[in-house]
Every structure is written in structure tokens, then in C-alpha cells.
Amino acid sequence: MKRLINDPYDVVEEMLEGYVKAHEQYVKLLEHDGRVVVSKKAPVENKVGIIIGGGSGHEPLFLGYVGEGFADAAVIGNINTSPSPEPCYNAVKAVDAGKGCLYMYGNYAGDVLNFDMGAEMASMDGIRVETVLVTDDVVSSKEIKDRRGVAGDFYVFKIAAAKAALGADLDEVKAAAEKANANTRSMGVALSSATLPSTGKPIFEMGEEDMEIGMGIHGEPGVRRGKIEPADKVIDQIMEHILPDLPYESGDEVSVLVNSLGATPLLDLHICYRRVAQILKEKGIKVHKAFVGPFATSMDMAGMSVTLLKLDDELKELLDYPCDTPYFVQK
Amino acid sequence: MYENYVLDKAYFVKVIADLAAIVEEQRDYLTGLDSAIGDGDHGLNLSIGFREVTKNLGEWQKENLTILMKKIGMALLGKVGGSAGPLYGSLFMKMGEPAAGKDAVDFNEFYNMLKVGIEAVEMRGKAVVGEKTMVDALRPALDTLAGAIEEGVEPKTAFEKMLDSAKSGRDSTIPLIAKKGRAMRLGERAIGHVDPGAASSCIILEMFYKNMP
Fold first, then answer.
1. Fewest beta carbons within 10 Å, which of A195, A209, A329, B91?
2. Domains of chain B
3. DSSP string for B46-99
4. pLDDT, tens digit, for every residue of B61-73?
5. Which pLDDT tens digit goes with each residue over A156-210?
6. How far is A78 from chain B (nearest CA, A)?
7. Where in this chain does the record put each DhaK domain (chain A) (predicted)?
8. Any catalytic annotation for residue A58?
């Protein structure tokens, strides 16, 4: 793949410069820290601060979800690399309204190290920061606590942010995030690698006609590599892993997210969604709301993932709660 | 013998400058190692960190060793990100403490700098030997240096033994399954690859060795 960039050392800063210009009615960069994208409405009075973040290269994750009714700030790292502790801390200082803050991000060792240091710094200022790690990727480990976070980030962030917007306290917001995470499962398929801006080369090798089911968004190996198969067969395999993992059963109500890893077109995604909907119908699982598009990507990687969120009345209300951000609007 | 073996600020500044240069040179090698079992940006992220160090080194070398090392560590912590940022940031920041505000240290004090630095990496990363991390290079290296000092081995030879241990430790990561970091989830697929953090740790120790008088 070809990338349209300037100096690879400047990709993150140049993206951020463009981002806050393009969406200046929503967001700005902190004046003293160019790695914190903060909502123009923040800090919101009497609201728990919602802070998300992680490496760059997954846009619209994380910065695309900063705005009203969603995250108050996103902390931005280098490509595929967690941000450092200082911006994690600066984000807290910028959005805390006296009710504490919640950090939410995918479960990766580097992110945990850096965000934890940010939380330690904030606690020295007497600001309480809690953390919820997203662990939705079913094939990444048998142990749920060791699983990585992928597109399920979107659901967990959305639910917790809505809870915060309704005026809940930090413990209640954290509990909502944990409940959303506990009800969310994802799995993907990779068709090609992303191209690293620094080298112009793919992160991993993948044959022209190959695919890998279960591969992570940074190219972490999945369950099986083989020749590419028709969409329906791929979705069948993905659903065979996801459905029994929670499990999602007849009578349940879910939201579905069919996510592009970057280079897979909406045409393909909707073919995939069609099959997901068929399977859910067969199983007697009702779809409350579906999302199809790029939500958590890996630059120019081809492939997609399916995420299911099992809903109850509370989660449904929080999912439907209005929000307005550059990359996700709900009325 | 160790009290008379002095390493001054010029030595440390030269080590850091050489380190910045070699990180630049080895960037794609480290990134290649990381592509195999991580996310492929170890080399680039270290180079972003050391470019920041290089930019400020002229100014920082006016400070004493404690502050100099702290500033280097803070720059790495702030610019590198990922796991490598906090880990190498802690290494350099902590290394400055035993220098106690001086402009030069003897070999005993230098050993203490390495000791508290490496212990800080272990503590921050919560890692022990055998988990396919930089600790696999750093811990045996430190133990070897302590042993050589116990035996009264001449400083540069003692450090050479330390470096050899670090390299064996680095190579010992090849057959391992990772227990920490992003490679942890690869299971058996991590076997056959060197840990990129163990490799960069060897590069750091090598620059300390190469510049010793």
C-alpha cells in the first residue's frame, strides 16, 4: 500500500494539527500539551471526566469520539504506541470537574504502564482517577483479563460516557463501563497488513491470497491462516467463536458493530453485516441497533471485525443516549 | 582499585551521544525485531526519544550527573511511549540518584547507578528473568557485574563480562514464549524471535562499555 504522508517523524503532530482545524467547533489541543485532544465543552460541570486514549493509527478511534455526550478528552500516542504519562495526567487536569475521571483504553501492556503513571500523578493532586480496560477480543486469550481491546472500545466508551453525561458518580460510571465490557465480544479477520509510516513497509507478511481469522489490530496472530474465503464463510467462523463465548442466546437483544480495519469498503462490510443478521435471526437474537463502518482501524489494513454487545434496559438507554462528536453523532 | 577508576560527565555525555547515534543507525533493525513479535515501532519510538535527548544534550550537560540523567530519563518517558518509554525512562532517571549531585563517579558508584536503574526497570515492568523482556538481558548482566566486582576484576574487564552476560541473556529470549507485553498473546509463535527490548538493552550497555577508559 502507498501512504500519503510527509516526514514519518511528523505524522502524529501533522494529523493532530489537521484534525483540530477541521473539527474546531468540537475540539482543541491542550495549549501546553499537543498530545491531548480535548472537547471544547470540557470540563463539564458536575460530570465525571471521560478520558480515552492509545496509540495513533486507529482513527477514528480515539480522537474521533471526543465531543458532547461522549469522551471529554483523548490522549494520543505515537503510531501503535501508548501515550506517555504526562499527557495522560494533563488530560485529567483539563477535564476534571471535581467528580473524578475515568480512563478507558484497550488492554495493552504499554498503555497500562503509562496511564497508571498518569493516574498516580493525578492522585498526588487529590484527583481520583479510575480505570476500565477493554478486553473484547475473544481469540486473544482464554482468560478474559488478558484479552486485548479492539473495536469493542467503541461500545464501552459510549456506554460509560452516556452514564457520566446523565450525572452519575465515578463509581456508577465505572460500573457501567465494566458491565458494557463484560457484555461485549469481538473477533476479526485480516486480509492484509497495515503499512508502517516509518518504513513504508507492511508490519507483517501476508500472502496475496491469504487471510487470517482472529488477527489483532496490530497484526497479532489469530487462530488460523489460510486462503481467502467468501464473506459468508468467514462470518460463519467468526460468529462460531463469538456467540458461545459470552454466550449470546435466543431471546437476547444485542447491538452489532461491523467494523472496517481501514481498507475494506462499505460494500464488503454490508455483505458481512447481512450474514451476521441472518445468523442472529436464526439464533433468535434480536438486533436493537447496528453500526457498519470504520470505527477502530489499523491504518490501511484490509479486513474487518464483528462486535456484539448484549443489551439490557440500562445499556440500551445509555447506547441510545444522544451524542455529537466529529465521527459519531446520535440524535 | 574501584575508588580510583573515575567516570566523569564527559564520559556519560559521550555515551548518550553515541547511544543516540546508534539508535538512529539500528532503528530499522529494532523495528524489524519488533515487527516479528510486537507492533513494529520499537526502533522508531526509541529514535523519537533520543532525537529529543540529542536536541537538548548541549544544554543539559551543564548540569550535574543526577540532573543530567534525570532529564534524559524524563525525555525518554515523555517521548517514547509504549512500554519502552516508562522502562528506559525509569532506568535513566534512577541511575542519576546514586551520583548524588556530583560531576563524576567512581566505579563503585557507577555500579550502584546501574543497580538502582535496572531494579527500577524490573519494578516498573513487574518482570523477572524468563519472560522474554529486557530484564532477560539486564538482570544477568547486573549479577555478573556484581560477581566480578566481588572477585576484584579490573573495571573494564568486569564490564566486558557484564556485556557478555547481557548478550547471552538477549539470545536466551529466542526460544522463549513471552509472558509480558504485546508478544504475550502470540503464545508459541513468539518462539524463534529475539525480544526487541532485550536487544536494545544490549545496545545501551554496549555504549557504556565502548566508552570506558
1. A209
2. 6-210 (1.25.40.340)
3. HHHHHHHHHHHHHHHTTS-HHHHHHHHHHHHHHHT-TTHHHHHHHHHHHHTGGG
4. 999 999 999 999 9
5. 999 999 999 999 999 999 999 999 999 999 999 999 999 988 888 888 888 889 9
6. 7
7. 7-328
8. yes
